[in-house]
Design goal:
The complex is a heterodimer of chains A (331) and B (345). Chain A is α/β, with parallel strands linked by helices and 331 residues long. In chain A, 32% of the residues lie in helices and 23% in strands. In chain A, strands 6-7-8-3-9-10-12-11 form an 8-stranded mixed beta sheet, with helices on both faces. A 4-stranded antiparallel beta sheet of chain A has the order 2-1-4-5. The two termini of chain B are 34 Å apart. Classes of the chains: A alpha/beta (331), B alpha/beta (345). Chains A and B meet through α7, α8, α9 and α10 of A and α8, α9, α10 and α11 of B.
Chain lengths: 331, 345
């Protein structure tokens, strides 16, 4: 087996605010191989977006990567100076944001923005850059690309803008793409189109992708592996089928049970009591224990990462191994 | 199936039941008037016209007492506009809305107080729909006091009772909205709606802004309230899995028109309209892994300039010449099943 495209080891990103330290990401480890899609799932404030930002080197003060390694093709990105990081961003590693207007400049025409991204990283003529940009628009399924190249972002619909943002991300044939909730703001039929484009591009180009989302169902249809985050930590990770069919961590278990689906129509949904804790001065021990039905005295200490069946890793003292019960939730 | 509430089973034959809400040919047009320069240009013979959006275009719908009707569609399909007309917030341009036999609207003005109080709305954004300068007890207690639902001296007890009903601690009554989380704020919004003892709730994307685990809590709350208070819901959402879970019947809208109405099981098991089929095939599901998406082609057209004939024809894989010209009527194709598609002829 070749080295993974990205390997994150024990990553910690903390925010040093006046009120105290917010451990947004605290000891996160995972790997993504060539052509693989990793789903990073969590609720708001779980640290999933900050994990993505850390990989891209986009964490602003008072936030700072305080520990761990981000190995991209074997090279650690954390100690790299900003100049070196800039070279990678947009060429080898790209990001797709939830709001495409974060990628697009509203006062520049699409062709200007796209050729700029090509010329920044490649030694080609302007005419060639424009050709590359046009080809990228065709690839993501934008009709009349020539006309679209000379338009401004506000002349596009939401779905079209997100396609342009995806086209820009794929412009320089990156080896890794971090997609942060790119379809959350879109309608169902448009979301289907975007998922389709992303899936095809990854398969064709062998680009590794991290798909950050709160929607378990989207990840189920797209990803090979899944990481479930809670309060800055990955509580469970493994192959998608194993995690969704036999969730071992009580949080994953509860999350899957609370998704309305066709087999529990009209019944009460499983509900996780309480709400996500504030990450500010989080007490020691398992962060989920106040909402957990299986919590006991052991949970006052931080649970170590353990291995469970089907190649999974679980951070819990009382992982769920009763497969039959887990299946009941799903089927 | 035993877990289904009785009213869900009873609503399989909605025609037998007295409708609580009845909408007949309800339309809403928004007109962007020409400014002075535009009017002068028009007088001089330039081809400028007022822009008209047909947000809702001739919707007929009746909802039986105790029923939960899910209204589904993508952005710009007019689902929220329809909900606002039902709730007495936005007057319809043409058509009539009746609640329990009494009109919701009289010549562009809201109808009798008892009708408007009986229909309450719950909004999407729990941050924007609460006045940040009012305490929770004022937010919940203001309307019942003003409308004489409870006597002034009983307001405090009534607020506490309402808060308990939606799962809020009455000790928090002196707090302001910003001191609550998103899920709790949505509960405040629900308590405010319930405080005037409504019989009908319009929920406009009421859980869309909440996290998954909180969504489940609020969905359960809606289902409990329905049983305890005998409420009827119009549940507006773009999220098909939520609607599938909670609704007895589903109404699908596309660009201002209703394209299909059916009992929930029927619509999810065998969708009739090509748009419904496309919509359902795109819904991500937990049990579908590493699937290949086969998306519908094209964008949602602008409601400013909708396609002729059937609005869906430019994206429809089965479109014929007739679809480009003739608007398909919403017809009953089986008992309690309505669809607007020429393919059914």
């Amino acid at each position: 087996m070749t080295a993974p495209t990205l390997e994150v080891r024990d990553l910690a990103t903390h925010f040093f605010t006046r009120e105290g330290v917010v451990k947004a990401v605290d000891g996160v480890s995972f790997r993504v191989g060539k052509g693989e899609v990793l789903g990073l799932v969590g609720e708001s404030g779980s640290g999933k977006t900050i994990t993505g930002f850390s990989i891209l080197g986009l964490v602003d003060p008072p936030g700072r990567i305080t520990g761990g390694e981000i190995l991209f093709q074997g090279r650690d990105l954390v100690p790299l100076p900003e100049r070196e990081r800039r070279k990678l961003r947009g060429s080898k590693i790209a990001m797709i944001f939830q709001d495409p207007m974060m990628t697009l400049n509203p006062v520049l025409r699409v062709d200007t923005q796209m050729t700029e991204a090509v010329l920044a990283h490649r030694d080609v003529s302007k005419a060639r850059a424009l050709e590359i940009a046009r080809a990228a628009l065709v690839k993501v399924g934008i009709p009349a690309p020539d006309e679209r190249l000379s338009s401004y972002p506000h002349q596009f619909s939401g779905g079209m803008r997100q396609r342009v943002a995806i086209a820009i991300a794929f412009l320089n044939e990156p080896d890794l793409i971090v997609a942060d909730e790119p379809t959350t703001a879109l309608d169902v039929t448009i979301q289907g189109q975007i998922l389709h484009e992303a899936q095809t591009l990854c398969r064709e180009t062998g680009t590794a992708m991290i798909w950050i989302t709160h929607d378990l169902a989207v990840v189920a249809g797209l990803a090979d592996h899944i990481c479930v985050m809670y309060a800055g930590r990955i509580v469970e990770q493994g192959p998608i089928d194993a995690v969704l069919d036999h969730p071992a961590h009580p949080y994953t278990h509860g999350l899957i049970g609370s998704v309305p689906g066709r087999n529990q129509r009209g019944r009460r949904l499983f509900q996780i009591p309480g709400m996500t804790p504030s990450l500010l001065n989080l007490p020691a021990g398992c962060a989920f224990r106040s909402r957990c039905p299986r919590a006991d005295a052991a949970c006052l200490e931080e649970p170590p990462i353990g291995t469970a069946s089907h190649g999974r890793q679980v951070r819990c003292f009382h992982p769920h191994e009763a497969v039959a019960e887990a299946k009941q939730v799903l089927t | 199936m035993t877990a289904l509430p009785q009213s869900a089973a009873a609503s399989r034959t909605p025609a037998d039941r007295r409708p609580l809400l009845e909408a007949k040919a309800v339309s809403k047009r928004f007109v962007k008037r020409l400014d002075l320069a535009g009017r002068i240009a028009q007088r001089l013979g330039a081809a400028v016209r007022e822009e008209v959006v047909h947000a809702v275009d001739g919707v007929d719908l009746s909802i039986g007492a105790g029923e939960v009707v899910g209204l589904v569609g993508e952005s710009g399909c007019g689902k929220s506009t329809f909900g606002r007309m039902v709730a007495g917030i936005l007057p319809p341009t043409t058509g009539s809305l009746a609640f329990d036999g009494k009109p919701v609207w009289h010549d562009g003005k809201v109808g009798a107080k008892e009708t408007t109080l009986a229909i309450q709305m719950i909004f999407q954004d729990p941050f924007a729909s609460l006045d940040p300068r009012m305490r929770v007890e004022e937010i919940i207690g203001e309307a019942p006091r003003v409308h004489g639902v409870v006597a002034r001296r009983d307001v405090a007890d009534y607020v506490a009772e309402t808060m308990i009903r939606v799962g809020l601690d009455p000790d928090f009554r002196r707090r302001y909205p910003h001191q609550f989380s998103g899920g709790q704020r949505q509960r405040i919004g629900i308590a405010r709606a319930l405080a005037v003892k409504p019989r009908f709730l319009v929920c406009d994307e009421a859980i869309a802004a909440l996290d998954v685990s909180i969504q489940a809590q609020v969905i359960n709350l809606f289902m409990d309230l329905r049983q305890d208070l005998d409420l009827t819901y119009l549940f507006i959402s773009h999220d098909l899995s939520v609607v599938e879970h909670i609704a007895d019947r589903v109404v699908i809208m596309y660009l201002g028109r209703v394209v299909e109405i059916a009992v929930t099981e029927d619509i999810f098991d065998a969708p009739n309209h090509p748009y419904t089929q496309a919509l359902l095939s795109e819904v991500p599901r937990l049990d579908l892994r590493k699937r290949r998406y086969h998306p519908v082609k094209g964008e949602i057209p602008s409601p400013l300039d909708p396609p002729s004939g059937c609005h869906f024809h430019p994206r429809c894989p089965h479109a014929t010449d007739r679809c480009r010209v003739e608007r398909p009527a919403l017809r009953e194709i089986a008992a309690g099943r309505w669809s607007a598609c020429h393919l059914n002829d």
